[in-house]
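dumping this here so i dont lose it again. seq + smiles for zinc ion
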Amino acid sequence: MQIEVEYVAQMRSAAGGATRETVTLAQGATVRDLVAHLANRHGDTLAALLLAEDGRPRSSTLVFVGEEQVDWECPPELSDSAKVTFLAPLAGG
Amino acid sequence: MGTPRPLTPEDRARYEWQMWTPGFGEAGQEKLKGASVLISRCGGLGSPAAYELAAAGVGRLVIAHAGNVKPSDLNRQLLMTHDWLGKPRVESAVRRLRELNPTLEIEGVPENINESNAAELVGRVDLVLDAAPLFEERLLMNREVVAQGKILVECAMYDMDANVTTVIPGRTPCLACLFPEKPPAWKRQFPVFGGVSGTAACIGAIEAIKVLADFGQPLLGEMLLMDLRHMTFRKMKVRRDPNCPVCRRLWD
Ligand SMILES: [Zn+2]
């Protein structure tokens, strides 16, 4: 199935500069499978934003499926053409 | 929340046009006059936000910001002026706010939020507009807002992206629900146009005005994501962390 991924702010540069990309995953894949796929595809900089040192999802990164934030601890199964947005929190000022 | 304060004829003349806003009116203006807001810090986000709140007539503003004005502040920190280079930022901010609206109480604090002043500064106001560049300061303000039952309007930006959300403890997720730890990607310096930080600031100011005057629909449990590179605005639902160490006790 096809998943549309969107990166916000620092996530975007870590993923090579594109705001959006489409990835193909096996049916029944979860957000965690998607994260593993992206970490592998884009290398260390993005992986460090998505995964903590112990390999678990990084708690400070926000993940949205459609317009709703999802829980890293029990990530839902994705459906075909789902849109997943990754946000590393901003401060700024 | 502060007690509404009656308007003077001078107030009615000053705020006439905004009092025409449906749902706001004279009663809303009296609520703003009786309200108090802490803005920390007063940079690219805090300057325009403080200016809008002063223009709108929030009765008491507390501005916290350390350090002196540097040339690199001037592209976005709109309460800092060229003639104030090398002099304290908070003095420049207070001076400009008083020039705009001398009817308000404006307190300048020449410090950034830290462990020793957070409780006292948050305790002085009804609402905190968080415009700090560091997560340590943001998480401290959140902790105090939750502990003291205040309100937090959270404005943030990086590059051409900005976001805003409003925290009412016990009704919405708090900041620590969203990011319990300082994100590893965040750096002290970041790309910024004043127009981007100013967009988040003006939206944050309107959030504060709506919550203080009790009208409209604030971003409660929602985060507005703004991508100004592509002009895409999305409203996302954010979730409470049932194990949040900061706000969990409010939900038991
Ligand atoms: Zn919380």
